[in-house]
Write a structure and sequence with these properties.
The complex is a heterodimer of chains A (103) and B (459). With 103 residues, chain A is mostly helical. Chain A has helices spanning 3-20, 29-39, 43-52, 56-86, 91-100. Chain A has 5 helices and no strands. In chain A, helix 2 (29-39) runs antiparallel to helix 4 and helix 3 (43-52) runs antiparallel to helix 4 (56-86). The longest helix of chain B has 28 residues, at 117-144. The chains are: A mainly alpha (103), B alpha/beta (459).
Chain lengths: 103, 459
């Protein structure tokens, strides 16, 4: 894809990203930050692509590290966000969860 | 390099899921759904990548790294205590930035100077932004974990060193265009990492979460730039979305704390961090026992509870709720006053209290409850300090000056449950502790609350 097409996508994404969280309430600042943090964990894909074509020890080591870090960011990000939001469930079901499954 | 059309369409779908995810996270009702949508988008996009027919060498290594990374992420996210959650988010953000920087370095090693001008430009940008996000996040992690001091660290001539390093970083980036050599990449890496550290060191106390949010936006931009380097549209879109929404979120957070972003980031450089710290040695305070506090609370008409980070550290949320339930049973009006940055991050306290099953309706936000303090008999401040410090209103030299606070000093009586006279996270003395209407109950928040609850039951 040529540079201008990518630039177009970039500019439009800026506006979407800005507008989509324009009306967030204070109590959700932390989960939203954490959720956004998880989304940029998709950098994992970039790690897989470079490791897939890496040659030589140095490239392979660095790219493996990139995949590892990307996976930590992606999986950990979504799990920790979900854990935060679990706390916002209505009172009853929180109590039930406690009694039911304590992992 | 040619991605099949169907796979491009799947990536478009993943991008839409990311947008819906952010949208969902902006409202309490749809937040969990939002997280789920984002996770689905990420999994689908990752799995599909393996079937697009791109040549993937080192396949075993790829799978192994994904599995190990996922396990580390999953386990640390499940195991972390809710109180330590902000630093874990900072850490996840840092490793994401590090991944983006590494990708750019590997791609540079691989292609050398075969890339065009824009390729080189975005490679340099990814390395710089990714490394800054990485080292900066590590420093915020160390601060929040209290491995290093939480106060602003002001090194002599720190401002000039930081500017020098910033200029050197940019100069090295330009150098890389003119004379592409590997050791220049290394130099760029080292300088960017140093800049990240220098940038975050002078930020202290309650400003740390704002910086985490800013670094989060930075990582987003690094990922977007790496998307350009790899000619991958999904990375470009996802990274840009996070960069843009993260920037807005950072501004909102700074606004909630009543300070412009610039003073958060650059305030510490001016070195006015010791404000209000001078007096206060050996001044008389009024302390009381749990029994006295129980009597004060038990015969009040209206009580407001102000929970802070100390409550969370002592894991005393449930005991506080028990106290609130007892008071309510005595016909006393009880509310919780939640400062926007109570805890360590905006919304952190709401999460912690929800964990202890405190009903939403009793949680009052600052603007809502501030007018009520003047008609309140007793305010019980548990493990909070900076968010009730009147210095934020009156002392222009205090680092928290201008931050909106809970006006607890308007109440008839104020009771502080504190471990010691040590100042709060921002490191400044609280004059309210010496006020004649203030009573202090020293000890661990959980112990103290348990004793008060016991005394209250005996009333």
């Amino acid at each position: 894809m040529d540079g201008v097409a990518l630039l177009t996508i970039f500019v439009l994404s800026v506006f979407v990203g800005y507008e989509v969280v324009a009306k967030v309430s204070t109590i959700l600042h932390t989960p939203l930050m954490s959720g956004a943090n998880a989304i940029h964990g998709i950098v994992l894909i970039g790690g897989i692509i470079v490791l897939g074509s890496a040659e030589g020890i140095l490239e392979i080591v660095l790219a493996t590290l990139a995949v590892l870090l990307g996976a930590i960011n992606l999986v950990g990000g979504f799990v920790v966000t979900d854990r935060m939001l679990e706390m916002f469930k209505p009172r009853k079901s929180v109590a039930n969860d406690r009694d039911g499954g304590s992992l | 390099m040619n991605t099949p059309t169907w796979a491009q369409l799947v990536n478009l779908g993943a991008a839409v899921l990311f947008i819906l995810s952010l949208k969902g996270l902006s409202s309490p009702k749809s937040a969990r759904l939002g997280t789920a949508l984002g996770a689905i988008g990420a999994v689908v996009a990752t799995v599909v990548l393996f079937f697009t027919g791109i040549e993937l060498d080192n396949l075993i290594l790829i799978i192994a790294a994904i599995l190990v990374g996922s396990a580390i992420g999953w386990i640390s996210a499940r195991r972390v205590k809710m109180t330590a959650m902000p630093q874990l988010v900072a850490l996840f953000n840092g490793v994401g930035g590090g991944a983006a920087g590494l990708i750019a370095i590997v791609e540079y090693l691989h292609l050398g100077d075969q890339g065009d001008f824009l390729f080189s430009l975005f490679t340099v940008l990814t390395i710089i932004i990714g490394s800054v996000a990485f080292s900066g996040s590590i420093v915020t992690f160390l601060k929040l974990q209290e491995i290093m001091t939480t106060r602003p660290v002001v090194i002599p001539a720190g401002k000039w060193i930081t500017i020098l390093v910033a200029v050197a970083t940019i100069a090295t980036g330009v150098w890389l265009f003119v004379d592409p050599q590997f050791w220049v990449v290394l130099l760029l890496l080292v300088l960017s990492l140093a800049f990240g550290v220098l940038f975050v060191l002078p930020v202290g106390g309650a400003d740390v979460p704002i910086v985490i949010s800013l670094l989060n936006a930075c990582t987003g931009l690094a990922v977007a730039a790496s998307g350009y380097v790899l000619n991958n549209v999904l990375l470009l879109i996802a990274g840009t979305l996070v960069g843009a929404s993260g920037t807005l979120l950072t501004r909102e957070m700074a606004k909630a704390m009543g300070r412009p972003l610039t003073s958060t980031l650059f305030g510490a450089f001016s070195g006015t961090t010791q404000g209000g710290g001078g007096p206060g040695e050996e001044r008389p305070v009024r302390s009381a026992g749990p029994n006295d506090v129980a009597i004060m609370l038990g015969y009040a008409n209206k009580v407001i509870l102000v929970p802070g980070y100390g409550l969370a550290v002592a894991q005393a949320q449930s005991t506080l709720r028990e106290l609130a339930d007892l008071l309510t049973a005595r016909g006393i009006e009880v509310d919780y006053a939640i400062h926007p940055v109570a805890g360590r991050m905006p919304g952190h306290m709401n999460v912690l209290l929800a964990e202890a099953s405190v009903p939403y309706e009793q949680l009052k936000e600052m603007e809502e409850i501030n007018p009520d303090f003047s008609s309140t008999d007793v305010v019980l401040v548990v493990g909070a300090n900076d968010v009730v410090n009147p210095a934020a209103r009156s002392d222009e030299s205090a680092p928290i000056y201008g931050m909106p606070i809970l006006d607890v000093d308007n109440a008839q009586q104020v009771v502080f449950l504190k471990r010691s006279m040590r100042p709060g996270f921002a490191g400044i003395e609280n004059e309210l502790l010496y006020d004649p209407k203030t009573t202090l109950l020293f000890g661990d928040a959980k112990d103290s609350l348990t004793k008060v609850v016991t005394s209250l039951k005996a009333l």
